[in-house]
Amino acid sequence: MAHSRNTDSHCVHAVSEQGKCVASENAAGQGKNAASEPTTEQGKGTTSNHAFEHSFSQTPKQEESPRSECTPERVTEQEQSASHAQLHESDTLLRSPLNHVDIPEQLRESMTLFLRLIRRVISEYDHSLRNVFDTLLADFVEADNYARLHDAKPWETQASAASSATQQASSTATSQLGPSAAKSDTYTCAAFERAMNTIASLELHQAIMLARAFTTYFHLANLCEEHYRVSALRAREKDIPVSRAHNTGVSSNNDLNAAYEELSEQCGSHEAKRILTNLEFHPVFTAHPTEARRKTVEVRIRSIAALLEQRASLGGPSLAENERRMLEEIDALLRTSPIGVKKPTPVQEADTIIDVFDHTLFNMVADVYRRFDDWELGDDAGCVSPVCPAFFKPGSWIGTDRDGNPNVTAQVSRVVAEKFRVHMLETLASATRAIAATLTLDAVSTPASSDVRALWKRHVEMSEDLPARTPALSTNELHRAVLYAIELRLRATIDRKADMLYASAQDYINDLRIVQNSLVAAGAYREAYGALQRLIWQAQTFGFSMVEMEFRQHSLVHERALADLRAHAHDDESALQPMTREVLDTFRAIASIQRKSGVNAARRYIISFTKSAQHVQDVYTLARMAFACEADMPTLDVIPLFEQVEDLENAIDTLNGIIKLPCVQKRLDETNHRFEVMLGYSDSSKDAGPTSATLVLHKTQQRIAQWASEHNINLVLMHGRGGAVGRGGGPANRAVLAQPKGSVNAFFKLTEQGEVIFARYGDPVLARRHVESVAGATLLQSAPSVEALNTTAMINYQSLADELEESSKQHYLDLIHTEGFAEWFSVVTPLTEIGLMPIGSRPAKRNLGASSLDDLRAIPWIFSWSQARTNLAAWYGFGWACQQLGSLERLESAYRNWPLFTTFIDNIEMSLAKTDIRLAERYLALGNRSDLSTLVLDEMKRTLQWVLSITGNRWPLEKRRVLGPLIRSRTPFVNVLSAMQVCALEQLRQHHDTLSAEELHDYTYLILCTVSGVAAGLQNTG
Hints:
This protein is mainly alpha-helical. Helix content is 62%, strand content 5%. An eight-stranded parallel beta barrel has the order 1-2-3-4-5-6-7-8, surrounded by six helices.
């Protein structure tokens, strides 16, 4: 990969001033591996006649007319016409990357469409670049193993070779495909080397634009999958009865209704209703930067999504215009740098939640509640009092999670809270006005109740100009007039006008109830329980704050602040350390938010790395010290967060000490003994490995649930999960159903992070499906059959879990404690470069004094391994533990009968399906530590063998009829980007002393482009 010294500096987008010295940070432990020797073999079956000089030189190739990255070569009209004709003639080329997998035809057609369009856009930009795009894609399709994709014999051989537990325990795979794949590997290795040589010969500006092209394709492919899922859900619902009353033996397609039916059958209707009343699904949105894409890119993707949605109903000129507009948007995507100019501030990150709220959440939650009522109430739905509670309670850490993020201050928290409050009130005011505009029921047909008349008089007393604004309405259409008055009060609440503002969201809901009850009394049932009920549901769900903000800080910060305060007990606050003053200001900010938006808007305070009851007491002490008058203190629910394995194992002792604290006992009395505990999946996994963390977390949940029962505690467990398997990711509904008895109790709370937010809540239909699925699982988890299954399985497989936990942990610790591992990790992954990406306000390290892996956040740890195509954080240690166990029969039994283990194995299998051993070898070789590389690669092969044997699959995800093919269809495209990334890393790691500042900057920019594309291609990466 050669750097073009003719590249216009202004066309290579700035990433950070730090990017110019990135190589110096990677100097430690870098290898001196020689680059691959060039080959003159031209690829058989290559889709392009374009020939490349295979050189790996620092000197750019000589060109007759050097071009900048942003100024494509001018193409004549004849060449352009011929190019377009070639594009339409090469249908075999277009479909071949997608024909080797069995994906649904509708999805295949959409992906083929976008592949054709992206190729056309690339061709218009630079025809020769399109040829390279085709060549690389064809070679990586071929390299993705012709034998695996066209016949199953190599995988069958592998499966049979691993069928015996004894053989499994003593054997190590020689390749990811097994022994009989050797002949096929000879074929695919040639294609792989051709592709790598092609990439190595590219000018840097070509590589950058290719990376952007493949990244653009992934955004379009993700859109295709989303569109297909929506279409499939809609098609499935066509054959489903509209209500329980119309049920002819076909169960509801709505997971929430289906779960409620099952719960009623097992527990009886009375108990099922009680559990339903207590149901709560509490996702907490965070700003963790694991979705590496710009907001401007999201806007264009939504525009293309709308065009794709329209396409099915178009024809003729309209269809042609639709495609022209698609090409316009795709061309703009290609020409838009995937890397933002600067990191977003926490205040700007709040726009993510507001965007999701506007696009999906506000209307989606009412749709979920209404769909439940439609099924349960049948023809009475919308005419009688609803049965579905407002169970969706969103939370947020954005602008409040200050653990290791110096950009989150008390002032920032105030600004973000005010931003949420104002937007929420404006939304409610607009929705109230919209209903008022249609509520034209007059006094003759629908007389107002005495409560409505009294409410109107109260509003007149608050604002004397109300009758003047609505003179006719106040006598003829009083329901309408009152709603207009309610709207005015909401707007007064925004401006904090004391005479008219609502003191709380509940006061607003009470006013809506008065109007609703009056309509019911007058016989206007549909008006009472139609749009007005939707608004009540929305107000119950979001309140005035939109989200319930949760503050988080590290326990060490509290300890230091208290020590500082005690050292300056008689001094003015100006004598305190800045961090101490910030801690005090944080509690004052919480109090201010509660005064404006209510206690629930900001009552939770989470302590990272809670190790003792004293850490909880510290928070209450600091809160008291922040105020001269105790009455000004905010209401606090202090939540211990147990993250590391040692803290999880000591959790019960810590909790026993916490509930003895007077401040905690007082709060328990006020909340009906409700107490929250948070469990961290990320740090526990980084601390002890994925297998040990999963099993220890499960055991801890069981112990905490038993502890809560013994102490009459109404337990709420918060799960600090991410999208990646190494951070507890995977299907949330399956995770709920695998929880121990007593750990859910109709309440499920988890963090929703990174790309997970957009994937789960970006589309209204998919968001509705996700919420119904998780809420249904949360209900069903209380069913006796589910509780019995989890309890019995835990007893039966406890010894298996203990053996796996201990041996996997030791093997994992042996790896990360190997001398030089931390330095090696930073060299063989794009860790340093990821830290330069302007994709989040939060630093990659906590900066509390550590200088090793202990200080590194789990998110970049996992994100970096996924970029290096190993996904080590999801599986390392499991294969070794299985080998030490030596019993395939016990593992197969656990996989069949223990929901937790089933979910765990399936998640590992998914992670392995997204790895590539050949690319992983290239990444690991960067560190020039063959001992560490061998450990990782051997464990990767060993784990793959065991997982396939346990699941009975011949290749990863063989039996997942949609997910498996979808991942395989993406693999060649992802591999192109990964290959570019590792080649660029080789340049930075091996030649940094000879690279100019401009070259360092440009190679770093290329890496960041590929990081964005790989993240889009692999999806659940953070």
